[in-house]
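Re-run with default settings, no changes from the original entry. Doing this only to confirm the output is reproducible before filing.
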Amino acid sequence: MGKSYQDKALQLDEQSAIPAPFYERVKVMIKTKIHSGKWPVNFRVPSESELVSLFGYSRMTINRALRELTSEGLLVRIQGVGTFVAEIRGQSALLDINNIADEIASRGHRHHSRVLHLAEIIADTQQALNFEIQKGSRLYHSLICHYENGAPVMLEDRLVNSQVVPDYLQQDFTRITPNAYLSSIAPIVEGEHVIEAINVSRAESTYLEIDEITPCLLVNRRTWTGHREKKIVTSVRLVYPGPRYRLQGSMRK
């Protein structure tokens, strides 16, 4: 007979120098259910009484574990209805320029991407101003949708300076993200971004599998490379569906 989730949690605790509190053990067992797919998105979690019987801990311990998992965004508790497994809600650092594939992997989740468009374009007046180049210069354009455990969490609409990154169009962006590739070719020395709440277009809502009225976060970002002579590498429009993602930042003096 296989070991129970409680036995497995206790075995993990025995390997640690500091025993985990009971509520942390319950959290581990619930996370195991979720990450294994046994408790999928929108699954109704057993009641506190049922979890007491299932895991063998007190109701107070179960209640604290559920409250903390709700605060962490893994569960949703609806008064008078019950507790449910939440939709994926990723988190990205507000002030950092991170690789979304690494962010998703750090949560123990699976990342994949779909390349919707990858081509060369000719810079119009506004694009030339944004890149500080001549109108009519070549730019590269990519439109990529990023997924976390199969759910779309970010639409990346990017323009790239062909003079700085001439081989951009030759990359397989289902295997490496533009962020990771650009960081290796043209390390960032400066960046700027503007963040706002938006409603997306019909095409964007289709890519992100949301309604057009769903609120989204938009990050417009430009980055520079070079030290003696700085050049703009890329200008990117990142769209995050609000119900599935949040941006977080902190400041210190």
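The mean pLDDT is 84. The helical segments are 5-14, 22-35, 48-55, 59-71, 100-106, 125-131, 178-185, 202-208.
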